[in-house]
Design a protein that fits this description.
mainly alpha; globular
Protein backbone atom coordinates (compact mmCIF):
# COMPACT_ATOMS: atom_id res chain seq x y z
CA UNK A 1 0.00 0.00 0.00
CA UNK A 2 1.20 3.49 -0.78
CA UNK A 3 1.45 5.75 2.25
CA UNK A 4 -0.08 9.21 2.19
CA UNK A 5 2.33 12.07 2.99
CA UNK A 6 1.43 12.29 6.68
CA UNK A 7 1.90 8.53 7.12
CA UNK A 8 5.21 8.70 5.27
CA UNK A 9 6.42 11.53 7.51
CA UNK A 10 5.37 9.62 10.63
CA UNK A 11 7.17 6.49 9.41
CA UNK A 12 10.31 8.54 8.78
CA UNK A 13 10.11 9.92 12.33
CA UNK A 14 9.78 6.39 13.74
CA UNK A 15 12.83 5.26 11.76
CA UNK A 16 14.76 8.22 13.12
CA UNK A 17 13.69 7.42 16.69
CA UNK A 18 14.82 3.82 16.13
CA UNK A 19 18.24 5.13 14.99
CA UNK A 20 17.73 3.78 11.47
CA UNK A 21 19.23 6.97 10.13
CA UNK A 22 19.73 6.12 6.46
CA UNK A 23 16.24 4.65 6.19
CA UNK A 24 14.79 7.73 7.88
CA UNK A 25 16.72 9.97 5.51
CA UNK A 26 15.34 8.17 2.47
CA UNK A 27 11.79 8.42 3.80
CA UNK A 28 12.10 12.12 4.63
CA UNK A 29 13.50 12.75 1.15
CA UNK A 30 10.65 10.80 -0.42
CA UNK A 31 8.16 12.82 1.61
CA UNK A 32 9.72 16.10 0.46
CA UNK A 33 9.58 14.97 -3.16
CA UNK A 34 6.00 13.68 -3.01
CA UNK A 35 4.55 16.57 -0.98
CA UNK A 36 6.15 19.78 -2.30
CA UNK A 37 3.41 22.01 -0.88
CA UNK A 38 3.20 20.38 2.55
CA UNK A 39 4.05 22.71 5.46
CA UNK A 40 6.44 20.08 6.89
CA UNK A 41 8.50 19.89 3.68
CA UNK A 42 11.34 22.17 4.92
CA UNK A 43 11.57 20.16 8.14
CA UNK A 44 11.66 16.93 6.15
CA UNK A 45 14.46 18.22 3.93
CA UNK A 46 16.49 19.19 6.96
CA UNK A 47 15.74 15.89 8.72
CA UNK A 48 16.77 13.94 5.59
CA UNK A 49 20.16 15.64 5.53
CA UNK A 50 20.68 15.37 9.28
CA UNK A 51 19.71 11.69 9.42
CA UNK A 52 22.03 10.86 6.53
CA UNK A 53 24.84 12.70 8.33
CA UNK A 54 24.16 10.61 11.45
CA UNK A 55 24.21 7.28 9.57
CA UNK A 56 27.35 5.22 10.09
CA UNK A 57 29.78 5.79 7.23
CA UNK A 58 30.04 2.89 4.81
CA UNK A 59 27.15 1.01 6.38
CA UNK A 60 24.87 -1.13 4.25
CA UNK A 61 21.99 1.02 5.48
CA UNK A 62 23.69 4.17 4.22
CA UNK A 63 24.46 2.58 0.85
CA UNK A 64 20.78 1.63 0.45
CA UNK A 65 19.71 5.18 1.25
CA UNK A 66 22.06 6.65 -1.34
CA UNK A 67 20.83 4.16 -3.93
CA UNK A 68 17.20 5.00 -3.14
CA UNK A 69 17.82 8.72 -3.54
CA UNK A 70 19.68 8.35 -6.85
Amino acid sequence: RILNPDELYAKAQRQLADRRFADASALFAEFAQRAPGHPARPDAQFAAALALHMAPRGSAEMNRAHAAQA
